[in-house]
Amino acid sequence: MLHKNKKNIQVAKHYSYILYSNMLLRNEGAMSRMRKLCGLMAASLLMISNAYALEVGVGVKAGTIGAGIDLSMALTRTINLRASLTSIEIDDETDTFVVGDATDQGTIDATLNLDFGSSALLFDWYVFNGTFHITAGVLKNNGKIGFSGVLLDSADFGAITLTPADLVGGAISGSISAGESYEPYLGIGWGRKAGNDAGISLSVEIGVALLDPVADLNATLQGINLTQSEFDTAITEAENDLTQELDQLEAWPIISIGFNYAF
Q1: Which residues lie across from 125 on neighbouring strands?
Q2: pLDDT above 70 (res 90)
Q3: Of 97, 131, 122, residue with least CA distance to 207
Q4: CB–CB of 116/87 below 8 Å?
Q5: Helix (H, G, I), strand (E, B) or coil at 216
Q6: pLDDT band at residue 54, thresholds of 50, 70 and 90?
Q7: What is the pTM of this model?
Q8: C-alpha–C-alpha distance, residues 215 and 174, integer Å
Q9: Is residue 120 over pLDDT 90?
Q10: How far apart are CA 143 and CA 162, in angstroms?
């Protein structure tokens, strides 16, 4: 919304540190980069809003999909357009998981590197022209789990049995990604909208994003028990097993808390 006679607004700098969970505390480097990015984007947004008299807002948040920034622009008195970007990394977590047919499943002891994040384009409808809003749009879940580990015992994949002896060092690695495309998002929340009187407020959002997970596995064949073709078939079957299990997780719950500022 444009205002031809809008005066220049002087905005004080607000620095908000969100202690959401142990994940954030253990990743000070990633959070430092995120704070620098937030500061740069907020400064750019302020210059643009002063130059073109736009009603805009900026927010920082942390939640189940990482920590990041929101940039909002008022389209009408009750509707804001919002771009969102989040990211966080967690390295060297350990876990075990199973692969193979139900008749003979193998266990992989793995070290995990977790990357959480998202990018989204959203419309916030402030139904009562207050702080409560209904949100709809598209979101890409950039979450990815990379792992490297060791197959501890044999596993059946159809007519093929894969054993630790079939792999160089028994080693197997791969990744599981939450999705490769933008998916529908729906949620509700509370927070100051762009176009309100200038000021800072607490923001809370609860929503659900659809997932399209994909699994990828890598290993090197050794020994004479399997041919390369049989080995490739077993790895493909393992990827399909993981993807099918992940398909049961059709949606990802999103909960975030933070602060936003309306200019």
Answers
A1: 79, 134
A2: yes
A3: 122
A4: yes
A5: strand
A6: low
A7: 0.69
A8: 8
A9: yes
A10: 29
